[in-house]
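Q: Could you fold this chain for me?
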Amino acid sequence: MPRTLGIDPGTITIDLCGLHDGAVFLDRSLPTAQAVADVPAFIALLHDARAALIAGPSGYGLPLLPVERAGETDLRLAYLAADDDHGGIGGLRVIARAMREAGLPVLFTPGVIHLTSVPAARKINRVDMGTADKVCAAALGVHDQARRRGCVYTDVSFVLLELGGAFSAAIAVRDGRIVDGMGGTAGPMGVRSAGALDGEVAFLAGTITKNTLFGGGAASVIGSSDDAIDHLAEPRTEREHLAHDALIESAVKAVAALCTVVPHPYEILLSGRLTHAAAIARELRLRLSPFAPVRRLEGFARTAKEAAQGAALIADGLAGGANEALINVLGLREAAGTVLDHLFVITPDAARHRLGIR
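A: Sure. Below is the predicted structure, expressed as structure tokens.
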């Protein structure tokens, strides 16, 4: 079977997970800032993996697209940043261009909004319903629940709550397919990100930049991003308690909202850096247990985060490996459109102009 590799381009770390004949051959995590600062070293690491297919760092997502066919318009749609905007995940374009130039077998994968399993009515005025890495984390959830229960993929149902080092998100899976999602900039409060912004706050801010979207979250309430997860897990000051309560309640509300489209999920799955804090996981289990049984999504790798593991499964399935059935149930090959197709507050053309797309 082919050697495949999954990449999770997180705000804090980039994680790599490689699979060969169902066994993990690469399990790494390195600081995102380090990878962006030394792109040749990161590209060399990918070359050394000798993977037949790599599910690459796809940002907000693209319908399945090999990196060699990705033009500048595709990269702007994937990372939602013009050339003069270096905030957010725009810096990952440097890595994407280097992958293209290096001739690596990288495939960009879709975000939630590209999936035909999500009804069009749920996509109106949405861009971030869950980035491509959230689709990968959900893929791991489908694989993991089916294995644990001994059931077929179409019997799987859950709500995935991912609390990362910067953003939070929630994804709804019904009958093995993603049917809805609340992405980081349109979802619950994150450690760094405010999550969904009140429109009046956006008006009062005057200008919303990519860096704005990476602020205003729990760390801002605390007053520092240093060791914010530790402060949230064991709050001591009034500000820390305030940030802790706001983040937890926002996460619970997101799950409750998605239970309207998956009324009886088999379980609630927890993933992401923040859920590794025992006190946070314990409180989430307590608060979410009225909806369904709650557990952490463990996966099969020791180091790489859940999304990197899911990306490895997706790469394996797309390369014709043992996980092809997972690709089929998720409908990844049918993914279509762009993240700008469902806008009515502004027009898709106005959004393209903002990104410098003619």
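A (continued): The chain has a mean pLDDT of 95.
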